[in-house]
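lol forgot to send this yesterday, sorry. struct tokens for the thing we talked abt
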């Protein structure tokens, strides 16, 4: 009986926290103004350098594939 009551209380807390999160997200969206900055003189569509986030094993495999491609290009 205690475990059921404990689970119900935890469920109620989780639901209330999710509601608070949703309400906070909506209030933040209201505060953000999507107005273009007229004083900005830079590139309107800048190129962004995207770096891959790989695990150690993925990095090793990626480097191995790069070497294979370089060898194929050198042979041609």
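and heres what i got for the seq, position by position
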């Amino acid at each position: 009986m205690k475990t059921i009551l404990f689970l119900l209380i935890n469920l109620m807390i989780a639901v209330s926290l999710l509601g608070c999160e949703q309400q906070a997200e909506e209030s933040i969206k209201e505060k953000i103004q999507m107005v273009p900055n007229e004083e900005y003189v830079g590139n309107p569509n800048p190129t962004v350098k995207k770096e891959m986030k790989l695990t150690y094993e993925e990095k090793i495999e990626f480097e191995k594939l790069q070497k294979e491609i370089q060898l194929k290009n050198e042979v041609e």
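The chain has a mean pLDDT of 81. anyway ping me if u want another try
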